[in-house]
Amino acid sequence: MEEKQGVQIGMPIIGGLIAAILGGVVWAAIAAMTEYEVGLIAILVGVLCGYAVVLFSNKKIATVHKIIAVVFALVGILLGKYLTVVYFTSELFTDTSMLTLVFDGEMISAFAETIQEYFSEPTDWLFIVLAIVSAWQIPGRMAKTSMASDASSSDQAPRA
């Protein structure tokens, strides 16, 4: 899984996972602080996953890296929604801590059963699409920038 035809995917997967978790936590923290879910955070999650995949791949990008970034952007959005639901549920039931609810089987089942409610607004889908586009484009753009800087630095080297 680590390397396929010179393309490293193990570390980019780890980077994408870290970015998804961080993005999901930031999403829930902002929702908790503002008591409102800010859809623009979905785009931030996509951008964060795209950058993390590039960073953890040493800027050697292939199509598989873009796919990894998109998958983890979606994971981060889903995690952000879940943690937001957990936060507001813990506010309703003051006798249960948020950390207890995060890993509660009933909470996970209830979220899975009602997931369509959390993605029912057209704006939800708009921000998800924008997050996917961001996660897809950032690795490609950064790879092009990296290749351009490599080419320009090799052009300036003295020739024998």
Overall pLDDT confidence: 87
The secondary-structure class comes to mainly alpha
Instruction: Say how many strands there are.
Output: 2
Beta-strand share of residues: under 5%
Order of helices and strands: EEHHHHHHH
- Give the overall shape: elongated
What does the main sheet amount to? 2 strands, antiparallel
- Termini, distance in Å? 41 Å
Low-confidence parts, pLDDT < 50 over ≥5 residues? none
Helix amount: over 70%
Q: What value does the Rg take, in angstroms?
A: 19 Å
Description:
It is a single chain. The protein has 160 residues and is an all-alpha fold. The protein has seven helices and two strands. The protein has a two-stranded antiparallel ribbon. Helix 2 crosses helix 3 and helix 3 runs antiparallel to helix 7. The longest helix is centred in the C-terminal third of the chain and has 34 residues. The radius of gyration is 19 Å and the shape is elongated. The termini are far apart. The mean pLDDT is 87.
List the helices and strands and how they pair.
Layout: E1 3-4, E2 7-8, H1 10-34, H2 40-56, H3 63-92, H4 98-102, H5 105-113, H6 115-118, H7 122-155
Antiparallel strand pairs: 1-2
Features:
2 strands; 160 residues; elongated; mainly alpha
Brief characterization of the structure:
The chain is mainly α and 160 residues long.
